[in-house]
Each structure stands twice: as C-alpha cells, then as structure tokens.
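Example (one chain per record):
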Amino acid sequence: MNRHLDLVIGALIAIMFATMMLVVFPYAQLADIPAPQGLKPYSSVQLRGRAVYIREACLYCHSQQPRDPGQTPSDMARGWGRPSVPADYVNDRPPLLGTMRTGPDLFNIGARQPSRDWHLLHLYQPRAVAPGSIMPAYPYLFRSATGIQGEVVVNVPEPFKRPGAGTVVATRDALDLVEYLKGLDHTYPIKLEDPGTGTLP
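Predicted structure:
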C-alpha cells in the first residue's frame, strides 16, 4: 500500500515540477514584455478570421515563427523575414506557433501577399496561384451566387472552375480569414541580438 502511495506522490511531484518549469516560469518571464511600436492589435474582423484559422487547423501545416539565421536553411534567405521574438506575440492568446512546415511560414504572409484577391483564390483553389501546391482547397468557404450585388466575387481561372459552380463569392468566414492573414505582417523594426554576428537589422 505504501509503495502505491509513494508512486502517486512521486507522480504528482513530477507533474507539479513540469508545470512550474514549462508553464508558470515562462509565463512569469514573458508577462511584462512590452509590445513593439509597430505591432498593431487585431481588429474584430481579424480576430474572427483567427478563429477560422484555428477551426480549419491551419497551424498543423503552417508555422508562425521564423527561425534564427544560424539554422539551415535560413528562413531569412527564404524571404520569410527576421526571426520572431517573444514581443511579436503579445496580442496572441494563445500564440499559433505551429509545429510543422508542410507549407511556408505565415509570420509575414500579409507583407509577402497583401492582395485580398490572391488570398481568396488561394483558399478556393491553391493550385490556381501556386502550381504543385499540396494545400487542400477550401471550397466550402465560398458559395455560388446569381445576384452578386455587394458580394466579393472570386475570379477563378477557367481551368480551375468547378462544374456548375456559377459565380463564386466569398463567405464571411473566407473574408475574415483573409483579413487575419493580411494582418500577419511583422516587418516593423526590432532589435535582435545574434550571439554569432551581433545585432541583426
């Protein structure tokens, strides 16, 4: 009986230690980090789009954390921008760092692709703008319409039109998601210390 009690107590101590080291201490370290001057808070539309991003599980294939230039290959050389720092995520609850890179990093996709039309077409049919892309299409974020007054029409090239789809228009979810993606622009200046080469621009 005492042996079982010792195991339970040992397991609880291990869980408490892990929680302190992985959750409590990092949170305390990062709690008072000020937001960079160029970081804008999300608008209500972007927050709705962020919820769509989470719902559609985009973070399983896309990261939002460019790596240190010492990593090979360099994310800066790929055009994904400078390495991220904790202050970049002040407005993110929780940060959507991602763990996989099946697709490109999206930390600065709003700077690389500021066009709403590009994003909408990319969501509707990725291969229409990125030949060879393995990203799935999200046609259910769009609908067919006849009366299109006030609707946002997606200009789908002929080879990528779905049979009988008619005029493709974006739903509110698609438009919100695109606003969130366009808001991912961390190109504001920030001081970075690189132990190998000094301060990065």
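Caption: Residues 194-201 have pLDDT under 50 and may be disordered.
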